From TrEMBL:
UniProt KW keywords: Kinase, Transferase
InterPro entries given in the database record: ADK_active_lid_dom_sf, P-loop_NTPase
Stored SUPFAM superfamilies: Microbial and mitochondrial ADK, insert 'zinc finger' domain (SSF57774), P-loop containing nucleoside triphosphate hydrolases (SSF52540)
An annotated Gene Ontology molecular function: AMP kinase activity
Lineage: Eukaryota, Metazoa, Chordata, Craniata, Vertebrata
Name used for this protein in its record: KAD8 kinase
Amino acid sequence: MERLSQRRTDPVTGERYHTIFRPAPTPEIQARLRQNPRDQEENIEKRLETYYRNVKDLEGFYEDAFYVNADQDPYVIFEFIESCIIKPLPCKKF
């Protein structure tokens, strides 16, 4: 929630900022930042509710999908995805 709801965009330059992780460098830029209506907490909650309501059906549909831990270096993520596509690891069927 924090990651999405704190995103802002500068309408002049199109540059994207985050109020916590990447704040605007000057008060002038900070004053003109705008939030996308989709990033308001109530809208994020609706999207999350829809996701959790449908996630089991999606997991069943995409049985052969693999889990990617995206909280790593982009090169490591790329290598993992490439290895799953080119030479998939054997997996246990449930």
